[in-house]
From TrEMBL:
<protein>
    <recommendedName>
        <fullName>EF-hand domain-containing protein</fullName>
    </recommendedName>
</protein>
<feature type="region of interest" description="Disordered">
    <location>
        <begin position="1"/>
        <end position="51"/>
    </location>
</feature>
<feature type="compositionally biased region" description="Pro residues">
    <location>
        <begin position="14"/>
        <end position="27"/>
    </location>
</feature>
<dbReference type="InterPro" id="IPR018247">
    <property type="entry name" value="EF_Hand_1_Ca_BS"/>
</dbReference>
<dbReference type="InterPro" id="IPR011992">
    <property type="entry name" value="EF-hand-dom_pair"/>
</dbReference>
Length: 135
């Protein structure tokens, strides 16, 4: 009887891979003590008066002057709303005549630009509030 016995060379195997840390749960809230750290301050709104806010709605390029085109630019959406069938039969000048007249009336020096003081003259009249019922 023949007995076969082999002796293979035993190599040292590579070490096992390191155990990976468990991936953090994206839904979990972080646990940390901020100590004395503070975050950035929230943005602050500038203290523009109501009239300045109204002025800058028209003054698109912020040069503190309102041109005739800037004043009329807010009318294009209204024009499209009035032209329901889209045939453009309503002319812009006919539709904007009240704005043109208001601009020309407010433009005291006739330079086709409104200064903040001239623009203030175009402010709508305040609506009187009805007194509350005391029933």
């Amino acid at each position: 009887m023949f007995w076969w016995q082999g002796r293979a060379a035993v190599e040292q195997s590579a070490p096992p891979p390191p155990v990976a840390a468990p991936a953090p749960d994206p839904e979990a809230l972080p646990i940390a003590d901020p100590g004395s750290l503070t975050g950035p301050a929230p943005p602050e709104m500038s203290d523009l008066s109501r009239e300045e806010q109204r002025f800058f709605r028209y003054d698109r390029n912020r040069d503190r002057l309102i041109t005739r085109n800037e004043m009329l630019s807010t009318r294009t959406e209204g024009f499209r709303a009035l032209d329901k069938d889209g045939n453009n039969l309503l002319t812009f000048e006919e539709w904007a005549v009240s704005t043109v007249n208001r601009f020309e009336k407010a433009d005291g020096d006739g330079d086709e630009r409104l200064t903040p003081r001239e623009f203030a003259a175009t402010a709508p009249k305040p609506v009187a509030k009805k007194p509350a019922c005391k029933c």
